[in-house]
Write a structure and sequence with these properties.
Layout (H helix, E strand, L loop, with lengths): L2 H10 L8 E2 L10 E2 L4 H5 L9 E5 L1 H14 L7 E5 L4
Parallel strand pairs: 1-2, 3-4
């Protein structure tokens, strides 16, 4: 939804990097990752001990990923920012 803006931020701010994933792609859609975002996927491109995580999406996804980050990657709750989108 905000790919253009995130790509611009990546150019302007070297410490910002957006990663794109699609859970269920439609024929022809391309993404860096296909499937759900989970702790192992996050670990593959971050330094969990140094990162601040921003999670936005459906409430169940936000809750699940937040719990995985805390339990599997030992991320403190203070380094996880969330926004739950309902009705989508």
């Amino acid at each position: 939804m905000f790919r253009r803006e995130f790509d611009e931020l990546s150019v302007e701010h070297p410490n910002f990097k957006a990663y794109y994933t699609i859970t269920r792609p439609i024929m022809g859609e391309a993404a860096e990752h296909v499937g759900r975002i989970d702790a192992e996927y996050v670990r593959s491109f971050t330094h969990p001990e140094k990162s601040v995580f921003y999670i936005a999406g459906p409430p169940a996804m936000v809750q699940e990923l937040s719990q995985q980050l805390m339990q599997k990657l030992s991320v403190s709750g203070g380094r996880i920012r969330t926004e739950k989108f309902t009705g989508h």
